Amino acid sequence: MTMTPDELTTEQVALRVRSLGEWFHNLELKGVRTAPHHFLGDFPTVFWKRFQHAFPADLTGKTVLDIGCNAGFYSIEMKRRGAARVVGIDSDARYLEQARFATQVMGVEVELRQMDVYDVGALGEKFDVVLFMGVLYHLRHPLLALDLLHEHVVKDLLIFQTLERGGDAVGEFANDYPITERAIFHQPEYPKMHFIEHDYAGDPTNWWVPNRACSEAMLRSAGFELLERPTREVYLCRRGERPTAAYPETLQ
User: Is the pTM of this model over 0.90?
Assistant: First the structure.
């Protein structure tokens, strides 16, 4: 039988937190911290404070999809802002179990599903706000994922975050160059995606790390209009039209 938040004691919460293994989100559940020794500090709370102003303050009546929801920190925050419905998906069953417990303790209703980002079309609906944070660099096929989000689930706003490395400059380039052009590829402000063959930060699922110019170029290529970059690595975007050059009729 599922207990209500009021019925759970601090000791019961602490025991359950430990039984769910290592947490990546440091949540406070009835006074119990889920990741008190996180290598990034009080993550993601400290990070969230850097860009929370870019989110709509009032999500009353809105639907939200949280892709790669992990233990549910952002899903819970969206409910706090009044979202009518929040769906959280993750490919990791352990993270979803943590999210189920966290939302139970918080008394927050979030629909949680085990799903890969490449399968978002199976949801069969578009959401007012889509969070796609901390996922892209874990993917073997990152641009495909952005294309699928645009096609299937983003109705209006996309909140995008990815690990970035390399220069922070963004240059202006022509739409085309002759095949003899080589110099532009050496410019630090040219869009670049760094491929990680083995591990990065001890994580074998870190595959691709873009520089800032690449993040912005990929978002535009997938059909998203960049509205704001409230802090490093975070982008507020609106769904727009996909560039016809990137999607010729023969490929649609």
Answer: yes
Do 223 and 239 contact (CB within 8 A), yes or no? yes
Q: DSSP of 55-113, one letter per residue?
A: S-S--BT-EEEEET-TTSHHHHHHHHTTBSEEEEEES-HHHHHHHHHHHHHHT---EEE
State residue 102 phi and psi, 5-degree precision. -60, -45
Please count the other Cβ atoms lying within 10 Å of the Cβ belonging to residue 199: 10
Q: Nearest-5° angle of CA 90, CA 96, CA 101?
A: 155
- Which residues of the chain carry a pLDDT beneath 50? 250-252
**Rounded Cα–Cα distance for residues 27 and 70 (Å):** 11
Query: What kind and span of H or E run contains 130?
Result: strand 127-133
The answer to whether 102 touches 112, Cβ cutoff 8 Å, is no
**Integer-rounded Cα radius of gyration of the chain:** 19
pLDDT digits 0-9 by tens, 183-202 = 999 999 999 999 999 999 99
